[in-house]
Amino acid sequence: MPQTIEALLADQGAQAVLAYLNARVPHRYTGIYKIRADLVTSLYLHDKQGELIPENIAIVPFEASICPFVLRDGWFRTDDSSVDERFATHPGRGYTISYHGVPLLNPAGAVAGTLCHFNFTAVPLPDDEFELLHQAALSLQVKLADVLG
């Protein structure tokens, strides 16, 4: 699978990689987000339903996003945040229900963004798909180094 990601990235770009990853999972969205001070901004977002991306998921206040968990833990998974105790006091509890994300590093090695699958209903992500998300992040962070820098 990593060869497929590399080929898609080289031939068609990041958006094609997101579409490929998203087609393999039940989540509605797969995205690349950049962390910018107090905001998290969508760089690329694939919607399984093909709709225009709502503003409330294109730009999210950092503290209301799930990025703080990714920064703290180096990755983050929850099938259902509405029953996840880690979300007990999180401002986004009950909004993004399913989230599975990994960090994207800038050329200096600092977390500059995330690659994630997310949904507004509870859905699981198999371990092998989470590992593929990690593999894709390694390729994407190299290709997007100038944007993540």
UniProtKB/TrEMBL annotation:
<protein>
    <submittedName>
        <fullName>GAF domain-containing protein</fullName>
    </submittedName>
</protein>
